[in-house]
């Protein structure tokens, strides 16, 4: 199949909406990462998403909507916290896991009783959903387990020839996936960190737990979110993390000097690595988040033995970057911390 590359404008969005209504697949920009969309009510279209990504059937998809009405049509029971969360963060980079209506096909939710819903802020995404008149099921538009795409070129590297079209809306502003908040249990739990931070959520909800990303993965029941498995969002090259200090990063690169080492290097750090990706100002977590996946993808193409990156703390978007790096590296730290994981 030939993948149409469409520059996002009113006409191309209308055309892409027709593809969605006809059961086809369209990759589209959101403010977080590019999504791979299909009609959420069409089980055959959703099955094609899993096939194109080579995503295992046990990993459920997020359903994207362009209005509160569309969202409520998917939800069996609107949780008590919903109004305040909607007012504070929607549209935006927050996904809610809620009890699902039977009209949502089981293939979307991988057989679960819940569905993940998100109202993206990106205008191209909103127009595509509104023009389709349908909720759009969309995982990140990458092959399963690979680094999420934050630009149209990244999508084409993974999915060219496997999907009907891509709407190119330029690079994604935030650059890491949405915060996933599970509201289906007794108390809210953050399953994946993102631009809506634990602190933001605590202002609305009071105490909120953050699930441990280091929990070993089991595809059966008992694990809140399949995407929490370690070694997700990963480059192919081995990734090693250091503390967020210039001299520790320099020490790690020196220790591995016999190998071809590349690094995500914060601006202004004097690091002698032959292959370096200028990541951005350390502490400017929003910029570092927006450049994280482009940096990992670029370093992954440089035929290195090892990628080294400093690990941010939990502050602001640092928490989301930290979580992604820990998953991508399977918790490998330098200097090694005896038995430490995730
Ligand atoms: O920012 C984002 O969320 C992007 C854009 C395209 O919206 N989407 C995205 O989708 O990252 P995906 O499929 O790559 O990640 C969705 C995560 C996965 O970890 C999945 O397991 C989890 O959400 N998830 C989806 N439905 C769930 C459910 N019913 N219960 C628990 N976790 C769920
Ligand atoms: Mg993904």
Can you walk through the features of this model?
The structure is a single chain. This protein is an alpha/beta fold. The protein contains eleven helices and 15 strands. The longest helix has 16 residues, at 285-300. The strands form two sheets. It has an eleven-stranded mixed β-sheet, with helices on both faces. A four-stranded parallel β-sheet has the order 12-15-13-14. The chain has two domains: 4-221, DHBP synthase (Alpha-Beta Complex); 239-329, 3-Layer(aba) Sandwich (Rossmann fold). The protein is globular. Residues 216-221 have low confidence and may be disordered. Strand 9 (179-182) and strand 10 form a beta hairpin. It starts with a strand and ends in a 13-residue tail after the last helix. 30% of the residues lie in helices and 19% in strands. Helix 1 crosses helix 6 (123-132). The chain has helices spanning 10-21, 43-53, 68-72, 82-89, 106-109, 123-132, 152-159, 198-205, 246-255, 285-300, 318-329, and strands at residues 4-7, 26-28, 35-39, 62-64, 94-99, 114-118, 136-137, 165-168, 179-182, 189-192, 209-210, 238-242, 261-266, 275-280, 306-310. Threonylcarbamoyladenylate binds at residues 30, 32-33, 35, 59-62, 95, 97, 109, 112, 114-116, 118, 138-140, 177-178, 180, 191-192, 224-227.
């Amino acid at each position: 199949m030939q993948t149409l590359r469409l520059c996002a404008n009113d006409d191309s969005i209308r055309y892409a909406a027709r593809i969605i209504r006809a059961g086809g697949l369209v990759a589209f920009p959101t403010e977080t990462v590019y999504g791979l969309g299909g009609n959420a009510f069409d089980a055959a279209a959703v099955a094609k998403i899993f096939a194109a990504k080579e995503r295992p059937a046990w990993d459920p998809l997020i359903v994207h909507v362009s209005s509160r009405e569309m969202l409520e049509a998917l939800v069996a029971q609107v949780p008590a916290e919903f109004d305040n969360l909607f007012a504070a963060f929607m549209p935006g980079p927050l996904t809610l896991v809620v009890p699902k209506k039977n009209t949502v096909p089981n293939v979307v939710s991988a057989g679960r009783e819940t569905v993940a819903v998100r109202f993206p802020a990106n205008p191209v995404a909103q127009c595509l959903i509104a023009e389709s008149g349908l909720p759009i099921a969309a995982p990140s538009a990458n092959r399963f387990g690979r680094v999420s795409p934050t630009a149209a070129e990244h999508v084409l590297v993974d999915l060219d020839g496997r999907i009907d079209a891509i709407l190119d809306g330029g690079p994604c502003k935030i650059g890491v996936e949405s915060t996933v908040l599970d509201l289906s249990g007794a108390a809210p739990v953050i399953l994946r960190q993102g631009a809506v931070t634990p602190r933001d959520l605590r202002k609305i909800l009071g105490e909120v737990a953050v699930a441990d990303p280091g929990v070993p993965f089991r595809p059966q029941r008992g694990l809140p979110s399949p995407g929490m498995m370690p070694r997700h969002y990963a480059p192919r090259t081995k990734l090693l993390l250091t503390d967020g200090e210039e001299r520790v990063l320099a020490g790690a690169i020196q220790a591995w000097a016999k190998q071809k080492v590349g690094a995500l290097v914060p601006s202004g750090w004097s690091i002698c690595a032959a292959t370096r990706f200028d990541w951005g100002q350390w502490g400017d977590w929003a910029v570092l988040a927006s450049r994280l996946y482009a940096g990992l993808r670029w370093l992954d193409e440089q035929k290195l033995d090892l990628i080294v990156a400093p690990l941010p703390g939990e502050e602001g978007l640092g928490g989301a970057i930290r979580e992604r790096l820990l998953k991508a590296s399977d918790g490998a730290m330098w200097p090694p911390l005896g038995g430490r994981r995730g």
